[in-house]
Write a structure and sequence with these properties.
This protein is an all-alpha fold. It has one domain. The chain has 11 helices and no strands. The radius of gyration is 19 Å and the shape is globular. The two termini are about 35 Å apart.
Length: about 325
């Protein structure tokens, strides 16, 4: 592999991580603004999450006395795993750094590492809320995992590979596979899994602090200052990354096959437009959706699993 190709892949990786780190908080601000508009409120400025992060990074770091090394390490691990997953994903180009390692299974378990460490940190804080939120988060993850794995299997049929850049590239070259039953079923399952993994309505309400309903917020109640800022950035990057993967699987147009600067710039613009549209659609959906009871969530995720099974069966029949 020549030096120019390595430099192009490294540039694409850096651009993708920077775009996630800067764009994810703005995406959250836009989604909150959209929700406020539909609820008849003015709402905060779109860039308010960036201002909040700046304020948090300037505050004092406070940690529970009984916490071990897991508590301060969890935010760093969360951001690091999402950054690595973002660097090797085909967000702006189908030739990211270490693209051969960007297997969907590898990406799933990279994100799972961050979620698991954050759940351990919730229990490590020694509070009842932390343990409750960690228990609920792990339960939802255990229910979403089978649906996601079956969906990955269905998505791999069209490209004959579970490698995400290969799947996106195959969709660009053969857009007719988007209309196949296996792809439609798998995309339906993927949408449900993305909503569950990112903690959005109807699975979780990120805007609430009611002890009977909160899941993610319960795990991070003891975080403050820079630690809370890192957790906020990591969760925002996770949401943007999942939406980016979803929109590139659904509509891969704009994702370049080269690592040149113009191709990367075009990919960034296309990604921003598609993720913005997906974020706005999700925010509008949340306005008209109520949070489901915790004991009803298995039904929703079981539905996603069945969609994944239908996608696999239809893929086998078509083959």
């Amino acid at each position: 592999m020549n030096a120019s190709l390595l430099a192009g892949e490294a540039l694409a990786a850096v651009v993708q991580v920077v775009a996630l780190a800067l764009g994810a908080p703005v995406l959250l601000g836009l989604m909150r603004k959209v929700r406020a508009h539909f609820e008849g409120r003015v709402g905060q400025p779109v860039v308010q999450p960036l201002r909040d992060l700046r304020k948090l990074f300037r505050k004092e770091r406070m940690r529970p006395d009984q916490a071990t090394w897991i508590f301060p390490a969890a935010p760093v691990v969360l951001v690091a795993t999402v950054a690595v997953a973002g660097a090797i994903s085909p967000l702006v180009t189908t030739r990211p750094a270490l693209g051969g390692s960007a297997d969907l299974f590898a990406l799933v378990y990279l994100l799972l590492i961050g979620s698991t460490v954050l759940a351990l940190a919730g229990m490590d804080s020694g509070t009842a809320f932390g343990g409750m939120g960690a228990s609920r988060a792990v339960t939802i993850g255990a229910l979403a995992e089978p649906a996601l794995l079956v969906t990955i299997l269905a998505l791999s049929f069209g490209a004959h590979s579970s490698n995400l850049p290969a799947i996106v590239q195959a969709t660009v070259l053969h857009p007719e596979i988007l209309a196949t039953p296996q792809r439609l079923f798998s995309l339906g399952a993927l949408v449900v899994v993305v909503v569950a993994e990112s903690g959005r309505l109807p699975v979780d309400n990120p805007a609430t602090h009611l002890e009977l309903t909160m899941i993610h917020e319960a795990m991070i109640l003891e975080y403050a200052g820079p630690d809370l800022a890192l957790v906020t950035v990591g969760e925002a990057m996770r949401l943007a990354l999942l939406l980016g993967i979803l929109v590139n699987v659904v509509a891969p147009w704009g994702v370049g096959a080269a690592d040149s600067l113009p191709a990367i710039a075009l990919g960034v613009v296309a990604l921003a437009v598609k993720v913005t549209a997906a974020g706005v659609a999700l925010a509008v959906f949340e306005v008209f959706t109520a949070k489901m009871r915790l004991f009803r969530l298995p039904e929703l995720l079981a539905g996603a699993f069945m969609l994944g099974v239908l996608a696999v069966v239809s893929g086998l029949v078509v083959r």
